[in-house]
Design brief:
The structure holds two protein chains of two kinds. Chain A is α+β, with helices and mostly antiparallel strands. Chain A contains four helices and 16 strands. Chain A starts with a helix and ends in a 7-residue tail after the last strand. Chain B folds into two domains: about 160 residues, Rossmann fold, CATH 3.40.50; about 110 residues, Nitrogenase molybdenum iron protein domain (Rossmann fold). Chain B is built from ten helices and eight strands. In chain B, about 50% of the residues are buried. About 0% of the residues of chain B have low confidence. The chains are: A alpha+beta, B alpha/beta. Chains A and B meet through helix 1, helix 2, strand 6, strand 7 and strand 8 of A and helix 1, helix 3, helix 4, helix 5 and helix 6 of B.
Amino acid sequence: MNRFYFLLVGVVLLAVPWFAVADDLAEIRHQIETLQKDYEQRIRALEERLEKAEAAAADAHQQAEAAEAAASEIAMAAATSSVQEKENTFNPAVTVVLQGSLNSYSRDPDDYALPGFQLGGEAGLAAEGLTLDETELMFSASVDQLFFGQTTIALHDDGDETEIEVEEAYIDALAMPAGTGLRFGRFYSDVGYLNRVHTHAWDFRDAPLVYRAMLGKQYADDGIQFSWLAPTDLYIRMGGETLRGDHFPAGEATDTLGNSQSLFIKLGGDVGSSHSWQAGLSQLWVDAVDRNSDGHAHGGSESTQDSFSGDSNLMIADFVWKWAPQGNPSYRNLTFQTELFYRDEDGRDDFTEDGDTAVLDYDGTQKGLYAQLVYQFMPQWRIGARYDWLSADNDLRVIDAGGLDPDEVLEESALNADGHDPYRWSLMADWSPSEFSRLRLQYNYDKSGTSVDNQWTLQYIMSLGSHGAHEF
Amino acid sequence: MNGYRKWCLVVSLLMCASQGAYAVVNVFTCEPEWAALAKEVGGDLVKTASATTGLQDVHHIEARPSLIARVRQADLLLCTGAGLEEGWLPVLQRRANNPRIQAGADGYMEAADYLRLLDRPTRIDRSEGDVHARGNPHIQLDPTNIPVIAQALAKRLQVLDSGHAARYQENLSDFLSRWQTALGRWERQARPLQGLPVVVHHNAWVYLINWLELDLVGTLEPKPGLPPTSTHLSQLLEQMERQPAKVIIRSPYQGARASEWLSERTGIPAIMLPTTVGGNEAATDLFGLFDDLVLQLLSVTQ
């Protein structure tokens, strides 16, 4: 199994320089051929010109004049646009995204939980009151003729300390043949639609519940992605990833070639000049080892913890429809976006309370969805609504109580859905004076737990520097 | 896990099945004026398509999947450049898995590289609105720029499709002589327009103003790319009392409200001019575009 993957990855990696060399050889051959043809054609062209000149001398004269004028203009343009050499000429594009918010909750955010789901990653709520959310530093540039690199470094507070997190740091191979693409390093997996979108480009302030519950807000990991884009007018992109598997929904990495694999396909196109769409289907296979609900999530009460080991397979279907009159989104536009999650988990759950650990057999299926509509009704102003829903059907059985009361273990495990299906309604309005700034007000009617949480947020997102273009 | 392996196999098989050769040079352009020019220079040796239409605001385009699919198949990607498409073109280039059209490759060309741009900002700061560091990118509105780009494009097509170099040269010569004739006609017709005071919505008209020697009184946008505000419009109204204009010009993709508001209060006509091919029914190609621009402006002076 391992050897097979080693071989596959090795071949892919070795192929990159090979294509470059092959390209070089082909290039030289091509240049010689071009030179040869070029001379033949020049002679032919000269002959033709001579004939024409004889036939219509006046006409040729006029054309020559025009061409000369144009040529001198080109030379002039070349002279004025010459780049001034500086030491920082090759600096990468730099973007800084500043985000902060004012949050109010009617329930204690530290008690946040989604019954039936073990929360991990950054699934928790933002701190109450005035808070700096996440400061992102992004750098990107071509490395050389073969590679492009990008990294996003996020700074956020965790208690009294500022945490530095490498959100992504990846390399794209630029010279891949036949519509293929290769990415390696740490990156957001291409499963689902919203997963690879940076939080500052989201239409709502927080992640949909399905992302919170099943991907720890967003799934980024270390690995390799291979993709292919079909040479058709219908957008067809498919690919696969093999990832290290030590970020939620995986636990610890134990397999040399990663505990987490994915496959995805995305289709897209236009309908007339005002409508466009994209649909995707993806699957993520995770071999989770000791996946803990960690500190960020505050899942359940503080003295208990669930740790899962086993198979976790997630399937996502996503669909996005965008409308902009005549293809001009800057005045009015409408976006409908929805994703359906289905997950199957099977393995063992170690439930720990005050140092005692019980072992449970766990077999569960969970599903959920969100659907949202965002409408820009005039330049700079948008409103939106979103609905979230989750449901877990978990089968838990205590194998070894480990000194704990078996009934209590079942009761307190995060995987116990308690017959409750979490749901949430969200409303938002935002104002973007330019593409670089946004102020947003959002209200959530959150019934993640058994009682309602009224959540209010006032948020700002500001981008400084060379802010990159946004994807569909 | 077995499912994963099986899928990998299916994907690799599909990839092998997709290889093929192009019979013609596939030219994909960011704007319709360059598609029209490629049609003139390339004739039936090229297949052209434009990412945007004459009714779209090129500054604000979504990097739609359909555009990525088109760029994936392009042999030559021809754009204005100078930052005009910076909100979406980089995404198309990076997502298209097509090394032929990356910056620096023979298959990528920016028209603005061959011209000296007007309106180079002296202060580059986002507080100045949507400024382009290299200068105003709306170069297609000066017809004397077109032959320069046509020559550069013909050269590029000759590199990409060297087998047909002579035919590109023929097409180019033919186009240049037709253009020269038309240019003489437009300049003769437009003589009465010299010094015509105009107000424009966005500063997209600098090249036209420069070519026809019009007089720019003001813009409806307070700063480039920012929507007109009532404060700015009333200031402009005041300014126009001292410095009257003859016409208010906007592009097809800009809202009519601001220019009609000003038109009602000043009694000056507000007109919609095409900024490119396809901007209205008359602008079916590059010749039609300038025919219509001159004609519409002349109708204001009469």
